[in-house]
Amino acid sequence: MPPPPRPPGRRAEPERAEFPRLHLELPHRFDRLFIQEGHTAPVAPTPYIAARRQTHTRGGDELALQPELFAIRRTVGKLKFLAGVESGTDTFINDVSPEVAAQCLREVAS
Asked: Residue 61: helix, strand or coil by DSSP?
């Protein structure tokens, strides 16, 4: 089992330097997750929702940044629509666990 992740404000310098490239790469990974059958590249960019939160770290001068990207597709050619409970509670229910989603995104890294 991998070690637990460090808090966002405690990243090592190589990880911090890698963040901008990775942040720009993630939407392209979403595109590669939803390639239509018979195609070798995405037909169109995958629509997604992006959110970014930041806060001061406890007892530090640094800021912690938490980016989130949500693909609004369930599968190729099928959009995910908000259910009533999602709209009513201001939440977005994901069909896939974060660990599985992260593994899928790693598999389509360029």
From this structure: coil
